[in-house]
Amino acid sequence: MKQLNKYIVLGILFTLFCTPLYAQKLSLGYLYPAGGQVGTTVEIEAGGLNINKAVKVLFNNPGIKGEVEPIKESASAKRKRKRLTDQSSPQIADRVKIRITIDANVPCGLYDLRLQGASGVSNMLPFEVASYPNLLEGGKSNAKQPNIVNSLPAVLCGFVTPGGVDYFRFSGLKDQTIVATVKARQLVPYIADAVPGWFQPVLKIIDSQGNEVAYSDDYYHNVDPVIITTLPKDDKYTIIIHDAIYRGREDFNYRIHLGTIPFVTGRYPAYGVVGKKITQQLEGVNLGDAQISQKIKVTKEGYNHLTYTNSIGTSNAVSFYALPKGVRVIHNPKEGARLTTTTAIADSLTADSKVKHYILSAEKGKNIIVELIGRRNESRIDAKMRLITQYGKVVATVDDTEDPLQGLMTFHADPVLKYKSKRDEELILEVEDLHRGYGKDYHYLLRLHNQMPSFNAFVAPANITVPAAGTSSFRVDITGKVKRPAHLILSGLPKGFTTSSLDIRNARRWNVSITAPKDAEIRRFPIEVKIDYQSAEGRAQAKVVPVDNMMQAFYYTHHIQAAELSVDVSKPSPYRLSLDLDIEEDVTFKMTDDVIPIRVLLDRDSGFNEPVELVLGIKHRLFTLEPISLLPGEKEKTIYLKINNTLLEKYKGKKNLPFWQMNIIFTVKGEITKQGKRTFQNAKYREMTPYFIIKLTR
User: Fold this and answer.
1) Which CATH architecture best describes the domain 2-130?
2) pLDDT digits (tens, 9 = 90+) for 456-472
3) What does CATH list as the number for 328-449?
4) Which of 14, 93, 106, 16 lies closest to 51 in space, CA to CA?
5) What are the domain boundaries of the chain?
6) Short-list 187, 189, 60, 45, CA closest to 121
7) Chain segment 197-246, per-residue pLDDT in tens
8) Percent of the chain, pLDDT > 70?
């Protein structure tokens, strides 16, 4: 346990100190309860870091509104929460109450909740709007003294503690089909200091004699379990939930939808075209009719999440993939159907044909790219594809291909096959499940492409806070290869805003700064970022996807897509800083130089005379900056970046000399807080310069 605690602490500190200094803002760790019934008002508690400074609640649906209220804790209670010697974490040490009102016309589902404070906007966490009322656990429970559920359906809300097990007792009738569906990992997708990186719930139902009626620890490939069971008799039943390895903390929280509620187990077809009506057959329990069908028409290309509603309530959401207009979809074709760039195939593996075959044409020297969408659309298939000539020779085989756009996935089971033919020929494409599974749930969509994007680009954070007259930044992460020259295009910035470092020189990660004018309006507005790059067909543009980055299990970082990218203009700091150089021009130095002089300028408001500390915004082994401050009364100073000449030796004789992105952080120290045995110095104000380039020259 001591060894485990050591790694927990390391993970906590890594999360704290690897956050860029300029991004000191609110961080949400959990919501409890993480949802409420449609048409009602619910009070919830949020845990996080710096969230006691929140003043506003933001949702991506105007029908949901919230008011924030700090929680007053005793000093002893706060110290207990901030101990670093057990499974607690300073990342969830702060608490606020939120009163949320949900309009009656808000569709059931998950919505993004963020908190806003003077220093910025938090990351997002899901808040669920549900058909059924919340029932909160009443503290510790056990088999003899469970939480009592007086009426169903209900949403059972709680969180597990270290080593803890939660119990809820309800009355059931013989032959009732009871559904218990858990949302746990869906509420907090990744936990930085937990292994495997999320709450892994185990769910069980027992009767009054202690006999197990049903058990689940996942639902197919989903971590969150689902129980669907027909009760054997009239009885008092107990539903039990705990973590698979008995971890626990407030962010190990859950919502269990319990009752004779509608649950969709399958929908066919699961693929269609944007704007085109399609009749979908539904399978499941408690749907109301022996055979359920609904007509749907979606307006969003890609992955949609659809529900079914009857007199009891709204079902679970199931995925539906929509192709762009102009693409034809053939559903369940005969063996040997032809796949083309304008005709996609939606099919499934069957008992009599566990391997499906399709025909496609190849041209000499041209790329063939076949994409299979299955697991990403909630199929059970773990697909494998083979490309075979008419003479039986296998020329390409592929199993799993990672899709960086699927930030919530940790097992990428959908393959993308790539092949360049040496001649004009007819080829056979084989599709099978890696484990030889079959059935309607083993469905998939095949698309043939001549070319697919060679990269994906993400912008984080999805909410960028810029103080009036100040500078902030975002980071663009690129997976894959983008051919340069590449340039970022920002649209939506109001007049007077400026940017720097829009020309991408680094293939994987690039920082961009935004500077607001002094008279900028204190408000929130959406922006869009695109990347202009050189494609095989010429210049092209691609959207940069807004995301919030979440860490899993001390190490892995995932891009979680956000509803929009926005800039929040906050109140100005009592000082503004700048560099006495042209941001668009490179700062150059030579191998023989020991230091790089940079002149910094500080514009102080009247009455502001505190010392301002300077540090490098991006740490490099090559450059160091000794601790330095602009003392009271000082408005300018020349700083000297010290160069590690030993590390420069490897660049001697190289044709292409390196460059580095850099910026300077200006900090005014604030309050000191103690967490366990450690002391943290918070910032009263923090500002940054725009990014600039330092380049080695001959």
Assistant:
1) Sandwich (2.60)
2) 999 999 999 999 999 99
3) 2.60.120.380
4) 93
5) 2-130, 134-259, 263-323, 328-449, 455-570, 575-697
6) 60
7) 999 999 999 999 999 999 999 999 999 999 999 999 999 999 999 999 99
8) 92
**Pair of tokens at residue 106:** 């808000």
The encoded tokens of residue 486 equal 């590449």
pLDDT per residue over 278-302, tens digit each? 999 999 999 987 678 889 999 999 9
Residue 523, both tokens: 């408000």
The total of other beta-carbon atoms located within 10 Å of residue 349's CB is 26
Average pLDDT of the segment spanning 599-624: 90
Measure the CA–CA gap between 516 and 496, rounded to whole angstroms.
7
Q: How far is CA 621 from CA 597, 599, 649, 662, in A?
A: 18, 22, 14, 13
Give percent helix, percent strand, percent coil of the chain, each to the nearest 5: 5, 50, 45
Taken as a whole, the chain contains a residue count of 698
Q: Sign (positive/negative) of CA torsion 66, 68, 73, 77? A: positive
Work out the number of other CB atoms within 10 angstroms of the CB of residue 105.
Answer: 8
Architecture of the CATH domain 455-570: Sandwich (2.60)
Residues 518-541: b if buried by 16+ CB within 10 A, e if exposed: eebeeebeebebbbebeeeeeeee
- The reported pTM is 0.89
Q: Tens digits of per-residue pLDDT, 387-439?
A: 999 899 999 999 999 999 999 999 999 999 999 999 999 999 999 999 999 99
70 three-state secondary structure: strand
Task: Give 291-353 as a DSSP string.
Answer: SEEEEE---SSEEEEE--B-SS-B---EEEEEEPTT-EEEESPPTTEEP-SSEEEEEE-BTTB
Superfamily, domain 575-697: Cadherins (2.60.40.60)
CATH fit for domain 134-259, picks 3.90.980.10, 3.40.225.10, 2.60.120.380, 3.40.50.2000: 2.60.120.380
Q: Do domains 2-130 and 328-449 have the same CATH topology?
A: no
Helix (H) or strand (E) holding 143: none
| pLDDT for the residue numbered 671 | 67
Q: CA-CA distance, 123 to 106, in Å (whole number)?
A: 23
Task: Look up residue 479 and give its two tokens.
Answer: 């997976």
Closest to 357 (Cα-Cα) out of 333, 380, 377: 333
Q: In this predicted model, what pLDDT tens digit does every residue of 643-697 receive, in sequence order?
A: 998 888 888 888 888 899 999 988 887 766 665 566 666 777 888 999 999 999 9
